[in-house]
Amino acid sequence: MVTNRLLEIAEGTVSLALKHDVSQAQAAAFLVDSALTRYANSEIHQNVASKEGGVAIKVVVGKSIGTLRVYSLDKMQIEKAVEKAVKIAQVTPSNKDFKSLPEPAKWTPIKGTYDSKTAQCTPAYRAEKVLEAIDTAHSRSQMVNTVAGSFSIASFAFAIANSLGVSAWALLSTTSLQTTVISKSRGSQGFGSAEQHSKRIRDIEPTRIGGEAAEKSINSINPKKIPVGEYEVVLSPRAAAGLFTYLAYIGFSATTYQDGQSFIKYNLGKQVFDEKLNIKDDARDPNALYSFPVDGEGVPKRAIQLVENGKVSEKSICYDSFTAGKEDKKSTGHALPPIFGFYSRPMPINITVTPKDASLEELIQETKQGIFITRFHYTNPVDPTKAILTGLTRDGTFLIERGEVTKPVMNLRYTDSMLSALKDIPMIGKHTNIVEEVTTPAMKLKNLRFTGITQY
pLDDT tier at 342 (50, 70, 90 boundaries)? Predict the structure, then answer.
């Protein structure tokens, strides 16, 4: 089994580091096996596959830390990387905030995270499903001009060991289908998109995804210009996920909390969001995509209630061993796994918004004058301490009048504080969608401020 081999490599790397008279050492060996079928102009134009392995090394000399990542599982290359990491630690200033690498803790694997059919999916199978999405989109209307997107699969394996006795591993498969459709009529274009994510290839529904993207594209032709200002909005799960992804990035990490950049630091115990809003981070939730039992330091992942009945608190913060040590706390198991690259801050990656009881149709029916948003594009933080975000709508933005979607509108730029936008959530949907690290239902917001308008 690949994880056994990776654990051997991780433990061997730690042993190599300890020969250099370091205080502590940690190694995370990883292997990412991925493949992608990409299509444009309604035909497949690229099939790619890659297998990337390596070891993320951390050594501690006194309180000086040296880190290095080597993209090789070859023993000689790892030995050289260990030597370099030790040299880095020896010339790095002492870090007074460092307490210790994590102590070993009992952990248990999560069942059903790895699907062999997904990990071993062939280009021929992906091509068949892509063709279904393309054909479905074109079958909706002669106005459908072109279909583009990608169908990807991946398997992730990593193992962590440290000099204090940590020994843990994780194995996961994922897949996603993303489709964008462009329609044309009388000189106007309409854009629509849809996507689906799962741990199992059998869950992917190309006809549904192709059909949804096509319908939005066809209905987006000849968009109308509307004034900027505040509107009621109905957010699809994809649009809602875009907001919560950035809230997690700027708010729930111990790094931003300790640096004074998190809005949570200034709103402890306050009713910052609607009381209907409950959000957790739980790798063992069946709807979570990145279901790793341990984090990037081998610490068992702990479920965290990020938002409880609209309130945030110190319990909302996600820690790794370093940030936890600064407050004499224990890690919550949120150090990012080595497969996520060089991001160093602890982060929630299995965010689930608790659904309620409304259908998407009911959300729209209860909106007298508002906007339906399919997704947000190019979202960025403006002021993290006030949770102000900005971004553009995309791929299906429609006016809602008297409880009905009536016409497409030109894409809008929103700029608003989520402390305001999520303060009044009249309705939350009952069906959740997985959108990478966020699983959420659709929802209706009483107000979202739009500050600009595009020409398409």
Answer: low
Ranges of H-type helices in 292-429: 321-326, 360-365, 418-421
Q: Give the separation between CA 105 and CA 30, rounded to whole angstroms.
A: 21
CA distance 450 to 394: 14
Amino acid at 271: Q
pLDDT score recorded for residue 84: 98
Cβ burial of 380 (10 Å; 0-12, 13-18, 19+) is exposed
Distance CA 295, CA 158 (A): 10
Does this model's pTM top 0.70? My answer is yes
Phi-psi domain of 113 (left: phi exceeds 0; alpha: psi -120 through 50; beta: other) = alpha
With residue 217 as reference, give the H or E element that holds it.
helix 206-219
pLDDT digits (tens, 9 = 90+) for 194-219: 999 999 999 999 999 999 999 999 99
Contact 424, 448 (CB under 8 A): no
Question: Looking at residue 455, what is its pLDDT?
Answer: 86
Look at residues 111, 110, 119 and name the one whose alpha carbon lies nearest to residue 173. 119
Average pLDDT for 395-414 = 98
Delimit the domains of the chain by residue range: 2-217, 223-456
Closest CA to 378 of 395, 354, 401, 365: 395
> Which residues contact residue 224 at a Cβ distance below 8 angstroms, ignoring those fewer than 6 apart?
399, 407, 408, 409, 410
CA distance 422 to 274: 6
**pLDDT at res. 456:** 85
* CATH number at 2-217: 3.30.2290.10
Structure confidence at residue 386 as a pLDDT band (50, 70, 90): very high
- Contact of 443 with 427, CB cutoff 8 Å: yes
Q: Are 135 and 213 in contact (CB under 8 A)?
A: no
CA distance 8 to 27: 11
Predicted confidence (pLDDT) per residue in 130-156, tens digit:
999 999 999 999 999 999 999 999 999
